[in-house]
Amino acid sequence: DQQVKQNSPSLSVQEGRISILNCDYTNSMFDYFLWYKKYPAEGPTFLISISSIKDKNEDGRFTVFLNKSAKHLSLHIVPSQPGDSAVYFCATLYSGGGADGLTFGKGTHLIIQP
Amino acid sequence: DSGVTQTPKHLITATGQRVTLRCSPRSGDLSVYWYQQSLDQGLQFLIHYYNGEERAKGNILERFSAQQFPDLHSELNLSSLELGDSALYFCASSVEGGQQFFGPGTRLTVL
User: Fold this and answer.
1) Are B55 and A98 inside 8 Å of each other by CB?
2) pLDDT per residue over B60-96, tens digit each?
3) How many CA atoms are closer than 13 Å to the CA of B43, on its beta-carbon side?
4) Is B90 on the interface with A (CB under 8 A)?
5) pLDDT digits (tens, 9 = 90+) for A73-95
6) In whole angstroms, what is the distance from residue A80 CA to residue A5 CA?
7) What is the C-alpha to C-alpha distance for residues A1 and A10, in angstroms, rounded to an integer?
8) What 8-state DSSP symbol labels residue A26?
9) Of the candidates A93, A102, A103, A98, which has an alpha carbon nearest to the alpha carbon of residue A29?
10) Residue A48, min C-alpha distance to chain B (Å)
């Protein structure tokens, strides 16, 4: 059973507009959340993260929002640029879970249209 | 460039064979994680080594094993390969508990 779900396999957004990528999780023990970006033929690259003690974290054009009660997080990219076209993975971690690796969603392919 | 290197980039082999994938972590990172990305399952955590010791196991099959050597590089050994083992295999490194940096991956094709 998938613990982290990204329900939109793909998303197309016009350049300059806002991109909103969504992620839902089921395990309430997860307390650290990350977004990774992946280009073809490359490994995932860390983008931004948020701890469960916060509900928002901002880094330049990227903002992550966390709604713990809904077990939902989202990534906002404003304004969207052509170089943002990539696959975005949501990942979660339970920091008290010892040394476990990240639990990933299946990814959303973001396409920025010129 | 994340600083994590993986070899080989591509590997094509036959069912029943055994292969070894290699990962060199970023300088100073003691933790190495292995992940498998298949078309239907997404990125799945396999195993974590810290400074030569196994720390955690995820969805790793018994046919798969890993080790981390004194120079901190790690190898993932896949044996009795099946068609379903075809996937991208990533390693990631970190300082303990820190952000994970991913290598470019090894694409394994089992024919």
Assistant:
1) yes
2) 999 999 999 999 999 999 999 999 999 999 999 998 6
3) 28
4) yes
5) 999 999 999 999 999 999 998 87
6) 23
7) 21
8) -
9) A93
10) 10
